[in-house]
Amino acid sequence: MDTRRAAPALALEQAEAALVEHYPRLVRIGYLILPPSLGRHRRVLSAHALAQRALPRGKSAEADEVPPVLPAQRDGSAEQGRGTDAGYVFLRLRVVRAALAAQRPARLAGRELRWLPRAPSPLPRVWGLRLFPRAGESDEIALEQRLGGLEPAARAVYALRRVDGLPASEARLLLAAAGEPEERIDAALRAADEVDGAVPLTDPCALQARPTDLLRRRQYTRTALVGGAALALVLTTMAVLPEGWGPDGPAAPPYSENTAAEAALDPQGLRRIPADGWRQAARTDFSVWPARGSSLDDTGLLRRALAVWARPGDEVTVSSTPGTQTGPPPGPAQLLFAGEVGGASVVMLYDGLRLVRYAEPTGAREGGVALDLARVDGAELAGSSAVVVQRGDGNTRYLTAPWVTEVSVAELLEPQRPAAGLAVDEQGVTDPIHTSSGDTACDSFPALELTAEGVERPFLLADLGELTPALLTHGAPGVGQDGAAPTSSRGQWARVACQLSLVSGGGVRSVNAWEFAEQSLPHEGGTARWVCGRAETWRGTGARAWTQFVDPSSETPGHEVVTARVEDGTACGPRDPGVLSGLLWRSPEESWFLLAAGSEQVTEIAAHGGVTGRREGRTMALPAEEGVQARLTGKLADGGELVMLGD
């Protein structure tokens, strides 16, 4: 049930804070609404311009509605926790309105002038560089093509559903406020229903840079005669060059001669670990993986992979996890794999800090190739037990570590179902499995269950759309945290799995689920559970934490209420294991209560604002009115104070 209430004005400071906090979401909404025909460079800059220009210029701006601080329980299945901030709701409306207006024809005296081009918007200008979002898999490209065939209003509906999980009723109201006619809104809702909602979305804030045409920029200062001579030279060179790739494949030309750099690009200099080398090593990570695959002696393939890593050309699609450097290898790298997987020739390399995957179409001598980089420094046994070797058409193949003795697929949403075995060939490559990376529907969430030699219990890894799957752990942060994967731990993950798509693409190293409190609900509402999830990254910064309320009346996974989210904090982690959260809850007798719960360090909870009260212990239930605003504080056993998560 929507509990938002009207407010007269929105302070500029509140809108600015919302812009900073939710900037990636606003840019993504604008990017999805803008037409792909703009081109990736101009479309990215236009999306950032829409988000930046959404900030009002005056001291305050009228807002349609201001939601309560605490999220309210609701009956629908739309994602909780998004769109509840008044500043964000106001900015989102301005972004949608501007994105739609930019695609409407100019008007004069009430008539559309389709022949008159619209004036270009004052984009953020980037001189000397071309910016592109990280390229996705084939299904992401297909989604871009599908969205390109829709009307702007339909793309807006799709963006609001995918990014903020808005139901049709709220999307209709927002489009109407943005100036869309009623008949177009109906058609847009129908068209958006036909678009696949399970494909990962492009992140327009994760960009890669390429230079513009450097030769052309320099020719501006030359005379026409010199320019004509240069053009003739280029045409002559192109006429005598052979078709297809050169010896270095689709790599760019070398920029300078450097002995150390050339040594790093020599296939003969690649380090190769013997098959049993990991058994005698002091460490158990990627540094002791042996070289495997059917193409270990294919010098041409290895040379192309190293050259593209050092100098990716225009035909190379480069992607990297946040915080990962994309520069060339600092020295001879370690070869992990070279072989054919799923119709592609793949090379996996490791330089001590990064994993690198190079993939080209098997047997091709021209065309596009892919280069993926991921930071993996500090990886331990579990975190270095599998990497994605090939992904496409919703399926993923993994290359497993030499110490992995058994691979199974566990369905997190059905913890009682036994894990199904997954075949692994002699090179360590698994059969393909369907993954749910970026799937907001959350009808299924398979995870890898790996058994390692010398490790007593198996552990879980989840594909979050990156080169390395994330380790799933459970229990209290620090001493109580466990990475084992018995049926009991999978039962805890059934309630957290549907939130994993929200942290995909963020360079996530591990995710922990912690049930920090149980609470008996008023009016014989049963026993609720409070869960805190925390995603840690390889780079250390950018960790995300959230709390969930598991209502006993809704036992189906995927319908939990997310009560708070925070990024770059220490809550629910080893440094700060304390957590306090709350929400408005409607009892079976249709009465509203303010519920709150804290971790075991909390000895007393107090409510301030629209609801006031104080209760000893670490749970609280106070009578409340629908839509009320409140703040929570908790008293700790050592005398300190704990504020609610996200406050």
Please explain how this structure is put together:
- It is a single chain.
- By secondary structure, the chain is of the alpha+beta class.
- It is built from 13 helices and 30 strands.
- Helices cover 23% and strands 27% of the residues.
- β12 (386-392) and β13 form a beta hairpin.
- pLDDT < 50 runs, ≥5 residues: 1-8, 62-83
Number of helical regions: 13
Determine the N-to-C terminus distance.
23 Å
Shape: globular
What structural category do the secondary elements indicate?
Answer: alpha+beta
Oligomer: single chain
DSSP strand count: 30
Strand content: 25-35%
Largest sheet: 9 strands, mixed
- What average pLDDT do the residues reach? 83
Provide the helix percentage: 10-25%
Summarize the topology.
Blueprint: E1 10-11, H1 12-33, H2 40-53, E2 60-61, H3 86-101, E3 106-108, E4 111-113, E5 129-133, H4 138-148, H5 152-164, H6 168-177, H7 182-193, E6 207-211, H8 214-219, H9 224-240, H10 259-264, H11 277-280, H12 299-310, E7 316-320, E8 334-341, E9 344-350, E10 354-361, E11 369-375, E12 386-392, E13 395-400, E14 404-411, E15 420-421, E16 433-434, E17 446-452, E18 459-462, E19 470-474, H13 487-493, E20 508-520, E21 527-537, E22 544-550, E23 561-567, E24 580-586, E25 592-598, E26 602-609, E27 613-616, E28 619-623, E29 630-636, E30 641-643
Parallel strand pairs: 7-11, 19-20
Antiparallel strand pairs: 1-2, 3-4, 5-6, 8-9, 9-10, 10-11, 12-13, 13-16, 14-15, 14-17, 17-18, 18-19, 20-21, 21-22, 22-23, 24-25, 25-28, 26-27, 26-29, 29-30
Helix pairs in contact: 1-2, 1-3, 1-5, 2-3, 5-6, 5-7, 6-7
